[in-house]
Amino acid sequence: xxxxxxxxxKLNIDLIHNYLSxxxxxxxxxxxxxxxxxxxxSLSFGLYIDNNQIxxxxxxxxxAVFAWIMDVFILxxxxxxxxxxxxxxxxxxxxxxxxxxxxxLGTDDAHGLYEQxxxxxxxxxxxxxxxxxxxxxxxxxxxxx
Length: 145
Fold this sequence. Notes:
The chain is of the alpha+beta class. The chain is built from 4 helices and 5 strands, in the order E-H-H-E-E-E-H-E-H.
C-alpha cells in the first residue's frame, strides 16, 4: 500500500541522508546535520510502501506567496512505477500550499515529470539571480568598503 505523509517523525533520516549524499547528483557529500536542518525547516514529504520509505521531497515555502521544491527522489528499485508522479501530486494538492503565486524547482533530468504539473523552463533567466556556494560560508557586508 502506497502512503504519502508530511509527518516528520516517520521520515527515515538515514535513508534520506544516504541517498542525497551518495546517490543524488545535486547533494553529493551533504552532511547529516545539514540534511536534518533542511528537513526541520521545510514541509517534508515521505513516500512509503508498506511503511518502508522509498521516496522523499521537501518544499521550502512561506505558505502565502512562494514555494520551492527540493531534494525529490524515488529509490532506484522503485522508479518507473508512477511514484514520482504520486509524490508530486501530493505536493501540488497539499492543503497548505494552495493559492501560491510562484513555484520553483531545479532539475537536470526530470523535466517530463514536472511539466505534467505545469512547470516550464524560465522564459527570462536573466531576471533570476543566485549565489551558489559549495561547502563554505557566505561572508557578506552590505554597504561596507
